[in-house]
Amino acid sequence: MLHTPITYLKGVGPGRAELLSRELGIATYQDLLYHFPNRFLDKSRYYRISELQPSSAEVQVIGKIVHLKTVAQKKGKRLIATFRDESGEMELVWFRSQQWFMDRLKLGEPYVAFGRVNRFGNTWSMAHPDLELLKKHRQKKQLRMQPIYPSTEKLSKQGVTNRVLATCVAELLKQVLETLPETLPQGLRDELGLVGKQQALVQAHFPDSNNNLARAQARLKFEELYYIQLALLRKNASRKKRIKGFVFEQVGDLFRDFYTQALPFELTEAQKRVLREIRSDLGSGAQMNRLLQGDVGSGKTIVAVLTILLALDNGYQASLVAPTEILAQQHYRAISDLLKPLGISVALLTGSVKEKDRKPILQSLADGSLPILIGTHAVLEDRVQFKNLGLAIIDEQHRFGVAQRAKLWKKNASPPHILVMTATPIPRTLAMSLYGDLDVSNIDELPPGRKPVRTVHRTDRDRLKVFAFLKEEIAKGRQVYVVYPLIEESEALDYKDLMDGFESMSREFPAPQYQLSIVHGKMKPEAKEFEMQRFVNGETQIMVATTVIEVGVNVPNASVMIIESAERFGLSQLHQLRGRVGRGADQSYCILISGGKLSDDAQTRLQTMVQTNDGFEIAETDLRLRGPGDLMGTQQSGVLSLQIADIVRDSELLKTARYHARELLSKDPELGHPDHQMVREKLSRMGVMKNRWDYIS
Ligand code: ADP
Ligand code: MG
Fold it and tell me: What is the C-alpha to C-alpha distance for residues 572 and 529, in angstroms, rounded to an integer?
């Protein structure tokens, strides 16, 4: 029924059907049914003049005209009526056809005035109101809220006006409403106070009141989100059933010894919780596919190390892959240091490892004598073969594509457990909708004793003051990062900026008192590594760099991060960069330097940085500014093209939907209960329908 072409609807016909399809993508009954009004003229309420508020919505006021006058103005005249109710007075104004109104308006008779109000001085004013005698108004049957449909100029020019659209929808509802099945179980609807499907559809188009409209929309949005969650959770469950994982059931000597003797600090509660989640995955018999989110500096590395030890304790090899050479090196060094007391060997494999050094690594991986390999993309090459890879950890996931992740899977007969670590916190809402089929752990707590980084925004003109501040910090023994943007399109220009900046810094901070490092993408890996190392060792006080240092670099003594041309960075990048400082016990600073003229978005980004250190909050703002598609890349954004709900605005509803979807599947995984038949049926309809109605029909 719902797939009937729209041309068969009474009042449509081939011509209009063509037009509707071309202009609004409405081809079937279903399309029209789900073409919802984007706003309503609210005629459900009558306002008293004393209640008027500044707003863009139309209001309806009952009153009497007590006075009429024309006022001369530069061009022509205007007619002003003083309109009074028992609570006060306002003005009705006409700029055209004054005489016509003059002749017809009746003083002292009650009218209903409908329109937008503006405030001029102390007086509310309504220009060219819809005016109707109250007597007449009362006689007519009123549609209390008139739907206004999204449409195009072409449509209304060709006679398909808003009124025609509304009539078509009303006709459609009359025809199909009775046949539409309920799609949410009664119990769930009762529990959440959700209105029935048929009522929701009627009220979403022709509501009796704002309240009923809100309830109708909530019901339809909930349904959409609930079914997305159900589909994702079921996909996840079936993946787990399909793909067996190695069982790491024992906590062995390595893990135990390290935990009791070599752990350099007490784990935070969040780290402990995440480890429990990981351990339960590893023992479950299903392949782990877990995303570990944790803000910069939250301590993901130690979680990775402990997970690696679990793999080793159970007789498997483990590998950690990072997106950049610098980061891989850092991990290698940090992890080797941590594991030194246990006498476990770790190797590093990156693009710059020489052929002759590579051979023994590959050999010992293949014969199983090398338990841990850390590296970059080089690890993914086909000739890198493990004896029994049981765990693959990927750091900074947003740099890796899905295809690359799949390569790790293929290193074994059966896929290793996968732990993906990311420091770009994916907003909760997005994580829920996108990774419904991936388990997510959060380290939502920083190690104790961290002082929040203090962030300020300065312009180019403040540079001398900034330099003076740097000198003070360096005198206290601290170190400083100065970061320049590097955007691919303007690479040449960016390098010039970087070099100019480096030169002016060198002049301002002369040797031998000051030592500067510089690191950028065009340098050879060895040169980069050499410069990084000098900074890490404290031989240089200032690190001038492009965003190559964005990920993972850990120099606790660095206390100032200066970001040049900060307006050119995205929010998540700014947040990542700021995370490079604030790792020690000292107060740290982030100084965002920008030009004087900023776009609104840039202004919002910099302000957000100044106002908060909370990665989740920042990511939510980012999502709002850029929209979900852009944030995740177009490839994944399809998941997010919702019909009714809005992933940002309806995040609370999404949480509720998620919760109830989980609950349903834990009670009745196969949806065999008669009460759940409608759910099963709708899910199977979603399974075959690969169009944009997947989630709502
Ligand atoms: P990220 O999550 O950004 O990868 P790291 O794992 O690099 O963070 O940890 C950042 C810093 O915090 C490191 O110096 C690490 O040694 C330290 N750290 C991690 N966990 C704790 C903890 N529980 N207590 C104290 N310091 C910690
Ligand atoms: Mg890290």
Answer: 25
Alpha carbon of 97 to those of 104, 284, 476: distances in Å? 11, 79, 77
Buried b (16+ CB within 10 A) or exposed e, 313-328: bbebbbbbbbbbbbbb
Secondary structure (3-state) at 41: strand
CB atoms within 10 A of CB 501: 18
Cβ(302) – ligand 1 distance below 6 Å:
yes
**Which range is least confidently modeled, 130-144, 256-270, 591-605?**
130-144
Q: Which atom of ligand 1 is nearest to the CA of 304?
A: 6
Bridge-partner residues for 89, per DSSP? 84
Average pLDDT estimate for 20-49 = 90
H runs (alpha helix) in 114-209: 134-139, 153-157, 162-176, 186-192, 197-205
Choose among 676, 457, 406: nearest CA to 574.
Answer: 457
3-state secondary structure of 326: helix
Q: Which pairing describes strands 454-459 and 589-594: parallel, antiparallel, or unpaired? A: parallel
Distances 221 to 150, 204, 430 between C-alpha atoms, Å? 18, 11, 16
Percent of the chain with pLDDT over 90: 53
* Most confident of the ranges 10-14, 293-297, 634-638: 10-14
d(CA 155, CA 225): 31
Please tell me the distance between residue 563's alpha carbon and the centre of ligand 1 in angstroms: 23
Strand, helix or coil for residue 508: helix
Q: What are residue 172's phi and psi, to 5 degrees? A: -60, -45
- How far apart CA 336 and CA 371 sit, in angstroms, is 12
Q: Give the whole-angstrom CA distance, residue 421 versus residue 654.
A: 24
CB of 582 within 6 A of ligand 1: the answer is no
pLDDT value for 633? 46
Cβ(588) – ligand 1 distance below 6 Å: no
Any atom of ligand 1 within 6 Å of the Cβ of 558: no
Is there a contact between 390 and 416 (Cβ–Cβ < 8 Å)?
Answer: yes
Of 404, 417, 446, nearest to 300 by C-alpha is 446
- Proximal ligand: closest to the CA of 615: 1
**Coil, helix or strand for 238?**
helix
Instruction: Evaluate if pTM is beyond 0.90.
Output: no
Confidence of residue 629 (pLDDT cuts 50, 70, 90): low
Q: Can you say whether the dihedral through the CA atoms of 129, 130, 132, 134 is positive or negative?
A: negative
308: which residues sit within 8 A by CB, 6+ positions away?
318, 320, 335, 372, 391, 393
pLDDT tens readout for residues 466-503: 999 999 999 999 999 999 987 666 777 777 888 898 99
Residue 585, helix vs strand vs coil? coil
Ligand 1 in reach of 442 Cβ (< 6 A):
no
> Which of 529, 509, 507 has its CA nearest to residue 519?
529
Identify the residue with better confidence: 361 or 426: 361
Rounded distance between C-alpha atoms, residue 233 and residue 413, angstroms: 26
Q: Name every residue whose Cβ is closer than 8 Å to that of residue 343 and which is 6 or more positions away in sequence.
A: none
